[in-house]
Write a structure and sequence with these properties.
Laminin; 4-stranded antiparallel sheet; 3-stranded antiparallel sheet; 3 helices; 9% helix; elongated
Length: 438
């Protein structure tokens, strides 16, 4: 419709201008043209304003002035166009006072259905057993002035710790202690209602002794010192984290007073188990057992005073070296650490029988390995103590022979000294010597 009107008007203008052009005659000056015309490009032309007036006049002849044509591409609906989705009821019936906001309107009957508290045709009245709240007294807590149930002090609406008084159709509560609110059923600041409806102090009113801290019990909803600071645990927070407080080198960590106390492993010491205990050394962050130079050595000298009062120095021999990386005593090939009634290692007397010297216990690497003797004794076997007069015969003071452990049989054998010969069997079988050096 819009385009058709526009096209129609344009065609009329075109025809009119064409006709006007046909009427125009050739001219040289304005004197050659009719009155009111101008000579332009050798053609008599009508002024522009008059041309527009003519076009407008012709346009009015073919359009209805009572109809406004919308602009092209406009969304304006033309008269008579109706949205097909619009439904307007034939008859609308309203409810009185919009049911006062306390009910629902039935548009078919024009009647209100009030809620459980309100009544009357427009729900502006209170039902029996209810009364209008005062403007500044929101009894039911709905945030609006409405009908609230009638209450008496005999109904005990204020709880046990409040004073109740009756004013009209309602009760007024005066709270005390930990409670607040219109009906004294809320907790004052600093208090928390437990699962029994009792207001108990919250964590802002509870002071805990470190490392304990206040927490809320998820079952009772009560605050207490039932939580622990970081790195503490247990119902009383008396257990502490061994890795954190004891460097991971403890067997136990407990709180003594307010201080963590570590029970260190045997090779560590210190309040936080960060140092090595006596007899241990630190290697790559680990305390390893020290090698005791009084128990692991090749030679050891000791000095003492003999029975005659003279100073005397004696040297004893073992066959080990301290390893400063592992802390162990490394024995020379062919030597091992034996055992004695005092523990690991041998007892070594440092000094002569007539001298006062020290006795070294648990000396390591002093026993010849009979299964793999050192090169010194590879052929003859490991030396050992002689039994009775074996090897020496009757001349025991001169020491005619030396006892060894025979490499193959591991039996005690006798090796005679220079100038002596063996009489009988040189092997000591079952504690029965059969040969001697004579």
């Amino acid at each position: 419709m819009k385009n058709f009107a526009f096209i129609f008007v344009s065609m009329l203008c075109f025809v009119f201008i064409a006709c006007a052009s046909d009427d125009d005659e050739g001219c040289v000056t304005v004197l050659d043209c009719p009155s009111g015309y101008s000579c332009i490009d050798s053609v008599c032309r009508q002024p522009v304003a008059e041309q527009d007036a003519d076009v407008a006049e012709n346009t009015e002849e073919v359009t209805d002035s009572s109809i406004e044509l919308p602009e092209e591409n406009s969304d304006t609906e033309l008269p008579g166009e109706v949205d097909g989705d619009s439904e307007i009821p034939d008859d609308i019936t309203g409810c009185p006072n919009g049911c006062s906001g306390f009910g629902e309107c039935d548009f078919a009957t024009g009647k209100c259905t009030c809620n459980e508290k309100h009544g009357g045709e427009d729900c502006s009245e209170c039902k029996e057993g209810f009364h209008w709240e005062a403007v500044d007294d929101d009894e039911d807590g709905d945030g609006a002035v409405s009908c609230a149930p009638n209450r008496k002090c005999s109904d005990k609406p204020c709880g046990e710790d409040a004073t109740c008084s009756t004013q009209g159709n309602t009760a007024v509560c005066t709270c005390s202690g930990n409670y607040t609110g219109r009906w004294c059923n809320e907790c004052n600041a600093g208090f928390l209602m437990n699962n029994e409806g009792i207001c108990k102090p919250d964590c802002t009113k509870i002071t805990c002794q470190e490392p304990q801290k206040c927490g809320i019990d998820s079952i009772t909803n009560e605050a207490s010192c039932n939580s622990c600071d970081e790195f503490y645990s247990g119902s009383d927070c008396k257990s502490c984290d061994m890795d954190h407080f004891c460097n991971g080198h403890a067997t136990a960590c407990v709180v003594d007073g307010n201080t963590p106390k570590c029970t260190c492993e045997s090779n560590y010491t210190g309040s936080d188990c960060s140092m090595c205990a006596s007899g241990y050394f630190m290697s790559d962050g680990v305390c390893k057992k020290n090698c005791d130079i009084n128990k692991c050595f090749k030679t050891h000298q000791c000095t003492g005073t003999n029975l005659l009062g003279f100073e005397q120095t004696t040297t004893v021999t073992a066959h080990g070296n301290c390893n400063n990386t592992t802390g162990a005593c490394d024995c020379d090939p062919g030597w091992i650490t034996g055992t004695s009634n005092l523990g690991t290692g041998e007892t070594v007397q440092c000094g002569s029988l007539i001298s006062v010297f020290e006795t070294l216990n648990n000396v390591e690497c002093t026993v010849c390995d009979i299964d793999n003797p050192p090169s010194t004794y590879a052929g003859s076997g490991c030396p050992t103590n002689c039994y009775s007069n074996f090897c020496n015969g009757t001349d025991t003071a001169n020491g005619q022979g030396t006892c060894y452990t025979e490499p193959e049989t591991h039996k005690i054998a006798c090796k005679c000294a220079s100038g002596y010969t063996m009489t009988g069997d040189s092997i000591y079988y079952d504690d029965n010597p059969t040969g001697q050096c004579e």
